[in-house]
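[job 4471] stage=fold_predict status=RUNNING
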Amino acid sequence: MNAAQDRARRRVLVTGGAGFIGSMLCRRLIADGHAVVAVDCLTYAGNRASLAPIADHPDFCFLPFDIAQQDRLAAVLAERSIDTVMHLAAESHVDRAIAAPGRFLETNVMGSFALLQAVRRYLEH
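[job 4471] inference complete, writing structure tokens
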């Protein structure tokens, strides 16, 4: 890899990385030469098997935890020197939001807030 390619290489955190769109994004980022850390708590929408094509790639890491764990997110950001965050984690099925509104709010609102706080703390240091 030359210096220009190294500068263009990103260290990306993808939340919801085992979801349909998240896993496609992870595969594309790896194919484009970026380092990827995928985080997913593997609810009904997460499917770790969708990451199988890149599971053993040296620039890929999968971490199964909930984005509401702000301290863990902060640690991952720092340990992996993340420079790009792509936030795709969400409870997106309307029927599930009606059946379990608490889980919907925890993931979509509080999980997003935890991610934002972790990134803010990371950037301040």
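[job 4471] summary: The longest strand covers residues 11-15.
[job 4471] exit 0
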